[in-house]
Design a protein that fits this description.
Structural class: alpha/beta
CATH architecture of the largest domain: 3-Layer(aba) Sandwich
Oligomer: single chain
Mean pLDDT: 91
Strand order of the largest sheet: 1-2-3-4-6-5
CATH class of the largest domain: Alpha Beta
Number of domains: 4
Largest sheet: 6 strands, mixed
Low-confidence stretches: 116-133
Shape: globular
Length: 462
């Protein structure tokens, strides 16, 4: 029997898009089974490596099943649809501008039709692919009128802790970032829709939900609600006051968007129903580099926010950040400033990555005249990896002998064979529990040690 698979690349918001597409396709296939195999490739384009990974996957998928219809969507599909349309096996390209229409487009293609199923499904371009010798339809434009996937009700299924994407796009203009080009301006899911999703998630047995977005802290700023100003803090308070959701987690939020009202919620609800976990993208600890990046904060602003977050949530807060290495013109002195700043901050984990020039961004032009040598980038990455590993181990080790609230996850087979259950603590620390426990269970865990892979060892506490 024909079916579909979906491969997600990139961030939490992209995964949420992929899960929504898959859910809608399952509903459509219940009424009319797919007539051919479909592979949906939900791409990222934040780095050149992300582009390469997507192309490599498409080529492998075509080799393994030449008859399958490959549909490419996501950020890469929005940024360079012609490039993807030319790859062997690609049947259609659906950019982020038309992602809400992707399930119906894919369903139509799975039944052998490249004709739009309704007048609103008219591809904005039809590109000739020399490798397949036929016209490959492309749905992509710069209006982003059909970019929000909001119909599917989230349930605790394949993802114990699913992402509810409540915000799309970004109005910032960081010089290195292609996201404003691939996802458009900031747009918010209406408050009533968010509340409906959360209530439905709770009714289906959900225990932990993650609010995510491309620029989550800007939720509500494009919504007019009488005289009241919509903002993320108000929405989070409503979710905690008006629903019985056991645990809410906030995904990445820019430093300048952690306002006093949002921080106060960690003081009021942190450790009970609001996860004590904050991910603040840093990118650089050098003032000069942040200015060249056009970031909207300085290192001392970042440090002030971190101090306020720990004052509100307490010392068990897990703080995470993204740090970029090798931004054009980054000198040894500027990198040393970043390294010193990272050492000072109480990070529980870091996401480290080298600068990747993206076509169409100011960073692309900067890199042409001011590149950082690859050897220097690798040396700096190594230095930061050592500091990051030490900080992660120190942060996790401090919980040995303590009890942490956690949720059980779908346990990987390799972990299950060891007689353990995968779990995640309320403050975002991975745990391997002794014994076999079903997914989606809230429980308290006594931490007994740290495994060689960095996860905490623990047993259910009674």
């Amino acid at each position: 029997m024909a079916g579909f698979s979906i491969e997600n690349f990139g961030c939490r918001a992209a995964r949420a898009d992929g899960e929504a597409i898959a859910g809608r396709l399952r509903v459509l296939a219940e009424g009319q089974p797919l007539a051919s195999d479909v592979v949906v490739v939900n791409t990222c384009s934040v780095t050149a490596e992300a582009d390469r990974a997507a192309r490599a996957f498409i080529r492998r998928a075509h080799r393994r099943n030449p008859a399958a219809r490959i549909v490419v969507t996501g950020c890469y599909a929005q940024r360079a649809p012609q490039e993807l349309a030319g790859l062997p096996g690609v049947t259609a390209v659906v950019g982020n501008s038309h992602k809400a229409l992707a399930p119906e487009i894919i369903f139509s293609l799975a039944h052998g039709s490249v004709t739009a199923p309704s007048p609103s499904f008219i591809p904005v371009a039809s590109l000739f692919s020399a490798s397949t010798a036929h016209s490959v339809p492309v749905w992509a434009d710069d209006r982003f009128a059909h970019s929000f996937l909001e119909d599917l009700q989230l349930t605790p299924g394949a993802q114990t802790r699913p992402n509810l994407k409540i915000q799309e796009g970004c109005g910032n203009r960081c010089t290195f970032c292609v996201i404003p080009l691939t996802r458009g301006p900031s747009r918010s899911l209406p408050r009533a829709v968010v509340l409906r999703h959360v209530e439905g998630f709770v009714a289906s047995g959900g225990k932990e939900l993650v609010l995510s977005g491309i620029n989550l802290g800007r939720w509500g700023r494009d919504i007019s609600s009488g005289q009241a100003r919509e903002d993320l803090a108000g929405l989070v308070r409503d979710l905690l006051k008006q629903t019985s959701l056991p645990r809410l987690r906030l995904s990445s939020i820019e430093p300048m968007d952690w306002d006093n009202n949002l921080i106060d919620l960690l003081n009021e609800f942190g450790g009970s129903r609001l996860a004590r976990h904050a991910h603040l993208p840093l990118q650089s600890g050098s003032d000069a580099v942040l200015r060249r990046m056009h970031r909207r904060y300085r290192p001392w602003h970042y440090a002030d926010k971190v101090s306020a977050l720990f004052s509100a949530a307490g010392p068990d807060l897990t703080l995470g950040a993204d740090v970029m290495v090798g931004f054009p013109g980054e000198s040894d002195r500027e990198f040393d400033e970043t390294l010193a700043f990272v050492r000072e901050m109480p990070f529980g984990y870091l996401h480290l990555f080298p600068f990747s020039p993206r076509p169409g961004t100011p960073g692309w032009a900067l890199n042409q005249s001011w590149p950082v040598p690859p050897a220097a980038v690798e040396e700096r990455m190594t230095a930061l990896r050592i500091v990051a590993a030490d900080k992660t181990l120190a942060h996790r080790s401090r919980f040995i002998g303590q009890d942490l609230a956690a949720i059980t996850l779908h346990t990987p087979e390799a972990v299950a064979k060891l007689g353990c259950t995968a779990a995640l603590s309320e403050n975002f620390v991975p745990i391997n529990l002794g014994g076999h426990i079903p997914a989606n269970q809230l429980l308290d865990v006594r931490i007994t040690g740290v495994h060689s892979d960095g996860s905490l060892a623990g047993i259910p506490s009674h």
